[in-house]
């Protein structure tokens, strides 16, 4: 298949979308299974658009895993139907419902059934990787939420995905593998709410898709496949580092960002349901994943060649950076004074206030230095050193 045959590509895209919609809108397990198969038949040709060897290998791995999980799903649903009186009493048998749960977890690539996902996605294009990590998870997640029996498997898979996905992403040099293990970690958060609140799970998936879509587009435009490519000597790429770093912070769940909102909603809901241990383990997995997110940020900040090219920065930018640092210090000084006032008496408090007044006067001098060159840098740092 080639890029020139656009009508065929459009047909396969419509098959992929219609298969997922069919699985979500049907009320019978056989129709859900047919929707999954239609989705699989639509995405497989899209994975072979350029007909390269690694694309063919990835599509074959994906076909084998999805076919095996679909076979487990339809066999378990047939055995449950034969063992019960009607469709309403299908989930009275824990063995077959557990097999159905496991088959859908294999489709999702959730831990401990996730080993096929990194091996398949490590050489995939960024846009196909986005579809695998977002759209392909929608139907199996909602089908898992329909199974109202045997929640222990989903809870254990949620905990395992959150922790194992974070640990295995450490010391990875491939950006695709880092994003795959990151999606496994976020899948743990989605699994923790899929049997409790479908709306919250959908909001989490939408926020996750919103975050990684511009990130993957940026990686695709810059042809970034490894972590060292983030530090290349490219001025246009380095100017986008602030944009990429904000997306990485949001993906890690830092408080001011959008990714923190989804995690906060899930934690609030789980704590209201008295699932304290599950919330704690998910939070520990997020803390572990914060390591490799901050590692990517440090590579873009410190190792970037653009940061060391001081001749390309004029003096006004350097003074602006100094003023921002001074103001950020002043913001935290009242909190520091309050904390120190708890442990010290009034004499030390007024001594600190005297230093605080001197610091404000130096900052005002520095602001005047931005507008005029009447005050020398040596005099400013002399005054700064005198109050230290």
Automatic annotation (TrEMBL):
Pfam families referenced in this protein's UniProt entry, alphabetically: Proton_antipo_M
TM region positions: 5-24, 30-49, 61-83, 95-117, 149-170, 202-220, 241-261, 273-300, 321-343
GO terms, molecular function: NADH dehydrogenase (ubiquinone) activity
Keywords for this protein: Electron transport, Membrane, Mitochondrion, Mitochondrion inner membrane, NAD, Respiratory chain, Translocase, Transmembrane, Transmembrane helix, Transport, Ubiquinone
Superkingdom of this protein's organism: Eukaryota
Top enzyme category: translocase
Membrane-topology descriptor: Multi-pass membrane protein
Domain called NADH:quinone oxidoreductase/Mrp antiporter transmembrane: residue spans: 26-289
Catalytic activity annotation: a ubiquinone + NADH + 5 H(+)(in) = a ubiquinol + NAD(+) + 4 H(+)(out)
GO BP field: mitochondrial electron transport, NADH to ubiquinone
Family statement: Belongs to the complex I subunit 2 family.
Known role: Core subunit of the mitochondrial membrane respiratory chain NADH dehydrogenase (Complex I) which catalyzes electron transfer from NADH through the respiratory chain, using ubiquinone as an electron acceptor. Essential for the catalytic activity and assembly of complex I.
Protein name in UniProt: NADH-ubiquinone oxidoreductase chain 2
Organism: Cistopus chinensis
Source organism phylogeny: Eukaryota, Metazoa, Spiralia, Lophotrochozoa, Mollusca
């Amino acid at each position: 298949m080639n890029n020139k045959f656009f009508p065929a590509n459009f047909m396969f895209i419509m098959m992929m979308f219609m298969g997922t919609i069919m699985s979500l809108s049907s009320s019978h397990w056989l129709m859900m299974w047919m929707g999954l198969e239609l989705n699989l038949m639509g995405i497989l040709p899209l994975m072979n658009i350029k007909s390269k060897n690694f694309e063919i290998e990835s599509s074959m791995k994906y076909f084998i895993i999805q076919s095996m999980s679909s076979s487990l799903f339809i066999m378990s649903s047939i055995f449950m139907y034969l063992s019960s009186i009607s469709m309403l009493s299908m989930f009275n048998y824990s063995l077959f419902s557990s097999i159905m749960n496991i088959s859908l977890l294999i489709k999702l690539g959730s831990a401990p059934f996730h080993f096929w996902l990194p091996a398949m996605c490590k050489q995939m294009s960024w846009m196909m990787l986005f579809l695998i990590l977002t759209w392909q998870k929608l139907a199996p997640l909602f089908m898992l939420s329909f199974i109202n029996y045997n929640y222990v498997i989903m809870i254990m898979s949620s905990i395992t995905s959150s922790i194992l996905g974070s640990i295995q992403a450490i010391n990875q040099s491939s950006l695709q593998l880092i994003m795959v293990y990151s999606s496994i970690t976020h899948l743990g958060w989605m699994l923790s709410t899929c049997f409790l609140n479908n709306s919250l799970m959908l909001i989490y998936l939408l926020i996750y898709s919103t975050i990684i879509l511009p990130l993957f587009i940026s990686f695709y435009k810059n042809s970034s496949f490894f972590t060292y490519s983030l530090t290349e000597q490219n001025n246009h790429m380095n100017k986008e580092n602030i944009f990429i770093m904000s997306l990485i912070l949001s993906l890690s769940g830092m408080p001011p960002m959008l990714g923190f909102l989804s995690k906060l909603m899930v934690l609030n809901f789980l704590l209201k349901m008295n699932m304290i241990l599950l919330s704690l383990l998910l939070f520990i997995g997020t803390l572990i994943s914060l390591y490799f997110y901050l590692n990517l940020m440090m590579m873009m900040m410190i190792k970037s060649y653009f940061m060391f090219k001081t001749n390309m920065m004029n003096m006004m930018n350097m003074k602006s950076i100094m003023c921002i640092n001074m103001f950020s210090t002043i913001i935290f000084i009242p909190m520091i004074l309050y904390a120190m006032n708890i442990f010290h008496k009034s004499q030390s408090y007024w001594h600190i206030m005297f230093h605080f007044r001197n610091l404000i006067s130096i900052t005002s001098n520095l602001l005047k230095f931005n507008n005029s060159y009447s005050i020398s840098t040596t005099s400013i740092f002399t005054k700064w050193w005198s109050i230290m």
